[in-house]
Amino acid sequence: MTTSLEEFLTARRAAGRRLLVPYVTAGAAPGWTDVVRAYADAGADAVEIGFPFSDPMLDGVTIQEASDRAIAAGTTVTEILREVTALDVGVPLVAMTYGNLVFQRSGAEFCAALATSGLRGLIVPDVPLEEAGDLADAAAKEHLDLVLLAAPSTSRDRLRQIAGRSRGFVYALTRMGTTGERGEVPEQAARLGRDLKELTDLPVLFGFGVSSPAQAAELARHADGVVVASALMRRLLDGARPRELGEYVASIRRALDGAVDREPDEHATLPRHRRRPDPQDQVGPLPRG
Amino acid sequence: MTEHALMSDPGTSGRFGDYGGRYVPESLIPACHEIEAAFRDAWADPGFRDRLTTLLTVYAGRPTPLTPAHRLSRELGITLLLKREDLTHTGSHKINNVVGQALLAQRMGKRRLLAETGAGQHGVATATAAALLGLRATVFMGERDIERQELNVLRMHVLGAEVVPVTTGSRTLKDACNEAMRHWVASVDDSYYCLGSVMGPHPYPWMVREFQRVIGEEARAQCAAELPAAVPDYVVACIGGGSNAAGTFAGFVDTTARLVGVEAEGGAAATFGRAGVLHGFRSLVLQDEHGQVQEAHSVAAGLDYPGIGPEHAHLRDGGRARYETVTDAEVVRALVRLARTEGIVAALESSHALAWVIRAAESGGIAPGSTVLLTLSGRGDKDIASIKELL
After folding, report:
1. Nearest-5° angle of CA B263, CA A56, CA A83?
2. Coiled coil: which residue ranges (chain A) (predicted)?
């Protein structure tokens, strides 16, 4: 048995770690797999890999531009899977894409192809709960965790259903709107994080608009961690090298670890310089399936 | 479990056979539920229906006439009847849907209408209805379409609407849809997305068809008065997303009439598309072998859409309707021919339906003596500049 995305993240959380999942659009720059490696080396707990789609409805300008570049460069699902198969970075890889690519042949075939290439999770933002039934079954059959999204507009009753159906983690949207960098942490995010934490033991990760280490740390207080996408992809589009992107992820890592240290109820009395045990010591790297 | 009758209420799943559904981000699900509930409630409310009928009559100019195209009929050896949506206020069938949705938005307490537009007809109609009901309007329009349809952009400005140029992707209708949906996600509390065709997430394909059904119902009654057989042999309409065709077909789906939707050759999702998911629904979509959605190309901006409404895909699969394509050159010739035989300058979009009728009548695809109802979805004033070069 291999470790699932959910088991991996849950174990890391149990070790007292705030979870960090950085994103990269596959094919947005030559050598994008080096970006995945840099993320993992910088302390990512999983890496989200965007499979570019021509009409990414939920994404803002940055990821649309990254997707357009990747498609123009000839990036295809087959090619991405070939490159992913050769990647061994010690943390789970999660695919993020849109329904049209997932259902090209069938959800079952797509899930099987992802699993064969070693991916552990799948996020499809335009396939909500009601449309996810067959896909969730197909994913489960392949031991692939289908991650569902929850939004600030989602009712509590629906949140319960989403939490019950989601695998791996629950992807909580910090705000209504598209992906993209933004300043403040909205109150609605804090509320959503709180509600989800009451309803589920699954890890809850915030995504959308996470645009600085400080903000990531602030958000992580209301859940188990963050997904960081546009802030990284903006830098990549502006020409940042994998090493520089890795440094940025490392800065978020430090901020998140600091957030754990500074958590008032449990750790307020810890001296600032005291090193927390490295979660890597307790939860080893992901064995390859 | 019984199969739904064709062109009836698709129920809460919004499925038409394998097509339709609600493929939108979780953030929009509550809004879709809210609109579906509001529409079900309004559609069952005689007060709402009366108000809509009154506005369509005293404001939009309904019922529209059925015009026998005498000279062209003689040339083609058929009886051709034109359902004159071009004579509505704002000059296209788009007003039927927009007045309905604007009334619904008002009933729901929304303050602003969002819309996408291709040729600009839906944008103009939305701007018009917003002005009528005291709502704000924000219209998303591809940069390329803004260049092609300058007149409609000016009309929207005069009507007080904000026109937002869309610079992503192919800079046409498909990208305007993406942008309108993104904007909707971010402003769903006070804004209502007034979708212009029988597409998008449930309940839009169904709701827009119901608001356009008035075309088919009027035409059915008018044909009964005009034709000895009461029902025409053919019912023909052009298809981009397919709203004027859906509204027309809805009036005839339970008759013997043969239903024909006519697409632009460069945007023929019913003919060249594969099943896919775009803009919130599953249907036939023009896409490459890898699943990337392709740009549609035609002389008519209003038909430059790479998908068709899910119900059309279902009607096609079941064989109840057939879908044909015509070329840009045929379309321009048809436009000029109608203008010179009947004194009617039809929109390039509507001229697609006409181009197929002409070809089919001249090649024997439509038997001599047949009766044909054609929905003339809009007027061609907006196209005069763009056909100048093609004449």
Report:
1. 115
2. none
Q: What is the pLDDT of residues B205-253, one digit of tens each?
A: 999 999 999 999 999 999 999 999 999 999 999 999 999 999 999 999 9
Query: What's the confidence (pLDDT) of residue A260?
Result: 61
The distance of B179 to chain A (nearest Cα, Å) reads: 8
pTM of the entire structure?
0.93
Question: Cβ A99–B186 below 8 Å, yes or no?
Answer: no
Task: Name A181's bridge partners.
Answer: none
B174 touches chain A (CB under 8 A): yes
Asked whether residue A287 is domain-assigned, the answer is no
Q: Determine the CATH number of domain B15-55+94-204.
A: 3.40.50.1100
Q: Give the structural domain span for A202.
A: 5-282
Residue ranges covered by each domain of chain B: 15-55+94-204, 61-92+213-388
Q: What's the token pair of residue B298?
A: 């035609």
Q: At the topology level of CATH, where does B61-92+213-388 sit?
A: Rossmann fold (3.40.50)
How far apart are the C-alpha atoms of B130 and B113, rounded to whole Å? 7
Whether residue B25 and residue A60 make contact (CB cut-off 8 A), yes or no, is no
Q: Give the pLDDT confidence score for residue A278 in this predicted structure.
A: 43
Query: How many domains is chain A built from?
Result: 1
Q: How far apart are CA B113 and CA A226, in angstroms?
A: 34
Task: Provide, as residue numbers in chain B, all residues whose Cβ is less than 8 Å from the Cβ of A148.
Answer: 26
